[in-house]
Design a protein that fits this description.
Bound molecules: adenosine-5'-diphosphate, zinc ion
Largest sheet: 7 strands, parallel
Helix content: 25-40%
Number of helices: 21
Shape: globular
Structural class: alpha/beta
Strand content: 15-25%
Radius of gyration: 28 Å
Length: 761
Amino acid sequence: MPNSLGEPIADPFVEVALPVPLRRVFTYAVPEALHGKLACGSRVAVSFNRRKLAGVVVSSRAELPEGVKRALSVAGALEPEPVFTSELLRFLEQAAKYYIHPLGEVLRAAAPALPTGAMKRLRADGFLEPEESLPGQRIAHHRTWRISTTNAEAAEIRLGARQRRAFEIVQASGSAWLEDLRPEIKNPRAVVRALADKGLLTFEEVAANPDPFFRTPVHRDRPPTPNPPQQLAIDSIVESIHARRAEPFLLHGVTGSGKTEVYLRAIDEVRGAGGGAILLVPEIALTPQLVGRFRARFGDDIAVLHSALSARQREDAWQSLRSGRVQVAIGARSALFAPVADLRLIVVDEEHDPSFKQDEGFRYHARDMALLRAHYAGAVCVLGSATPSIETYHRANEGKLRLLSLPSRATGARLPEVEIVDLRRHRHGPSGHALVSGPLHAAIARCLDAGHQAILFLNRRGFSPSVRCSGCGVLAECPACSVALTEHRGQGVLRCHYCDFHRPLVVACPACGAKEYEHLGVGTEQLQQSVEESFPAARVARLDRDTASGEGVEAVLDRLRKGEVDVLVGTQMVTKGHDIAGVSLVGVVLADQSLAFPDFRASERTFQLLAQVAGRAGRAETPGEVVFQTFQPDHPAVRLAASHDYERFYAEEVESRREVGYPPFTRLVTARVHAGAEDEARRATGLLAETARQHAAVREGAVQVLGPAPAPLARLRGRYHYRLLLKSPDRKLLRQVAALLAARIDRGLAPAHATLDIDPL
Ligand code: ADP
Ligand code: ZN
């Protein structure tokens, strides 16, 4: 069947990329039944080493490759249309090349989940029968009611208490779902029917959207008039979109400066022109509010790609994006691969966020790949941040990105005052709890007295990050990883945050048999307890990965938004873009915590975290107040985040990077090696180092080779990890050496296993 996406293939042979860890493609013959029905981007089933695998056709050829006598035939095609548009396929080929990663694995990472093992029945036309048991069947949409107000006046009609309350709930936003009434109204159907009989409400039965991002209805917003810097940014981006200039931008705007409004306007323009757009956000689960703003502007015809989608929902989303019926895709890093038709714009919000780096399997950086995809698609790429990464800002300074600035908050609110509390001088406050100093205690008290809300940020979950036996002083460690076990008092366990190993809290010390532990350090669980003890009247909630898996992120944030929480204690989750009007105080419990990481980006990371978390305070009429508690009050990352001085921080940081030769002045490649025994891992890494030295650039020092060295987490899930770091200011030479390593890895390092990480974080 000829298709709209790619030219049908007339050649007798095709090259197929398979999801196997081999950096090559494989030739198969096109069977009679499929002549003229395949295109580049089609998914096909083939035999490979006696297994059936689903692969992707990436090119065709008139003859077999030289030296190859015969080829197996393609067993069947999975769908009548190619899964990958030619634009997407071309980009993914470039991405595989850039990361020196097997194309088949890149394609598998990009495609919606497909059942590789389970094969379907082959039909005479060469296509495979759709499998009945596809994981995540289309969910039978359950029915619900959409309820709306009428123009009738309730004041003139006698209502019972339940009826009045139900009416108020619907009236508050003009419409509601049956589910919105359930928490407060018993038997809501009967109540709504009664109100409808009185002419106060109308309702219609509709299929409920099973997707949590679409469950509650939103009202169309009234777009604010852009202020002059916003207008300038919008005009520049829009002009570039229409001129099809494929130009990359950096939108640098302080927290609350109205960057999202710029995205909305640019995307609106793209939609109007019939094109498509992608918005990448760091963590989709933390951004229901942002999705709400997009629905308010564009309605529900947007695709929100998130991990809770079933395989079937994901395929539906792909279908509607590919066909152009839905023009906007929003999601975390993997939304980069959304098959948006006629792609004109990619926005990367909070481009500095480390979660854009995929850190297993196909290791890619979604921000860098957004620039690449936009380049190949002829689309505009907008990177937005209040605290751009050093690499990105450097690129802007070099003229490789066009810099657009939003220097002040859109609502006219001022950036909050930040007080730095030196923990070496202030130990415990009046509560006596470690890590709640006098000044922080006083600030919380002031905030609560004023009826405002506070957020306290501490980037460690659990009760204590580590515990030590009181008898012999031995630290409780994970048996499989080289890390301390974290005490989770609520769950009554000591837990490894890497492999999830856990054991009961009260157990005899494996070394001496003693049953008492000493707690070292403070985690969010303990912080919550101290705040509850110090402020018994306050309603304290916690947001971290432990509570997220229970009550759910959305539910906690919802309670905060409704004013049902006075103090929210949490990890990084509290630092992301929640825009909550009642929050006037943000306390960073240990501002220098992330400086301790053995990483040249530690300072940058700390600055970003602090500046972002400080931006959570005082976003509405209430002026914000921020407290940083720290043992290093003079550290530039702490000091300059407190004065909201990005430019100064950048200038200092980029200088020190230049001095020590780190990115953006050099590029890095890491070979990661692991094995069941330490000497095997070290030996294999040594072999890679030898391989690297075969290149003249390494012998002459143009490419530096550092290692073999144990990885920062030398033992993880029972395996030993080693590293080899390549570093060079010359990108081309570095790639040549990396390619040598890839070839060596392909020849095998058994029993060790190795992978390359290009531009590691
Ligand atoms: P950012 O994405 O930079 O953090 P937002 O786009 O979330 O900022 O804007 C912060 C607040 O300012 C939001 O409540 C938004 O509705 C409001 N806002 C944005 N642009 C304007 C404007 N031009 N006039 C008035 N309010 C605005
Ligand atoms: Zn472990």
